[in-house]
Amino acid sequence: MHPQLSDKRIVCREFIQALDACHVNNWARLTGGCNQEKDSLNRCLRKERVERSTRNRAQAREKRLKTEQVWKELHEDD
């Protein structure tokens, strides 16, 4: 399954439960009857991943600017 599903903080719980409920019916699972639930789960997980990447990128940018400022102040003393 998806690696995000093993997290302790599950963000797309309702989509996971819907997919699990659909997978109880083996015939629907094997014939594509659960594709809509799976697509919904994929969209939810993608949205979470994009939001997390955006947050991480902003944090990295702030950290890089802070580091550059410290280096600049350090080299001003030379």
From TrEMBL:
InterPro entries: bZIP (IPR004827), Cyt_c_biogenesis_Cmc1-like (IPR013892)
Compartmental location: Mitochondrion inner membrane
GO cellular component, one term: mitochondrial inner membrane
Pfam families linked to this entry: Cmc1 (PF08583)
PROSITE patterns membership: BZIP_BASIC
Keyword Ribosomal protein attached: no
Keywords: Chaperone, Disulfide bond, Membrane, Mitochondrion, Mitochondrion inner membrane
One term of GO molecular function: DNA-binding transcription factor activity
Residues covered by the BZIP domain: 52-66
Biological function: Required for mitochondrial cytochrome c oxidase (COX) assembly and respiration.
Similarity annotation: Belongs to the CMC family.
Protein name: COX assembly mitochondrial protein
Lineage: Eukaryota, Fungi, Dikarya, Basidiomycota, Agaricomycotina
